[in-house]
Amino acid sequence: MSSASSPYFGRQAALATMHNKQSALGPVLLDALGLTLLTSRSVDTDQLGTFAGEIPRRGTMREVAIAKARLGMQETGLALGLASEGSFGPHPVVPFMPGGVELLTFVDDERGFVLHQSRVVDETNFGQSVVSAGEAFDTFLHRAQFPSHGLIVRPNALAEDDAQSLALVKGITDHSTLVQAIATAARRSADGKARIESDMRAHFNPTRMRSLAPLAEQLALRLTSLCPACACPGWGKVDVVTGLPCTGCGMPTEVVLQEVFGCPSCTHRETRARSDGLKHTGPEHCPYCNP
What is the pLDDT of residue 42? Predict the structure, then answer.
């Protein structure tokens, strides 16, 4: 489907962001859908939660993304809204590696649906290190890709009566500011140490910013796919059924057997075989052969 035949060709959607995400999302959605993003710069999305944690996230990723999209829609008066949320920590599949989940949420109040598209992120500079003032930490800086990627510094151990944001410095991209922030945070810390973290906000993290474009492509594909029952945009994979049989014993495993496709507006669902055609999995994935 060309962008000219997309159901959103020539339309505008509100994007509430403080982190320049329109630079990654906008070109993809314009090319694939003919959809233009109108950035709502006056909306304070930090009120819904911050990566540094001084303002806790108010709800699940999906709940916050919907709320964020609606803030932009209210500000611009548009019936279409888009928002992005991310979460980083131990990889959701390989826990001993860093990883994350990126989420894009699209709200269409004209058709009355909300569509979520997510992807697991393998490439990330996410990490943290605890240091004393004057201590060498070049290995961490290299892994964090500093100074092309920003850092956050805070006291490692706050006293109970200290505020979470005390001595917190975000968006550090030069060495002198980093050294000064570490010294200040270490003095304020109950254990005399500072914690350095990757700044995961997209405008201070080129690696994260790059991960948003492939997610926008996935969302665009969903929005050009119409439900076979009601013709609403957004038809796509919504769930999976596990139970792919083992080649060794034939018993079902936890590996995906079927994919469930659905519509964000009506209740129509279709269960299909795996798109890659895989019919069996190896004994290494079998709880009976490899308990």
Answer: 78
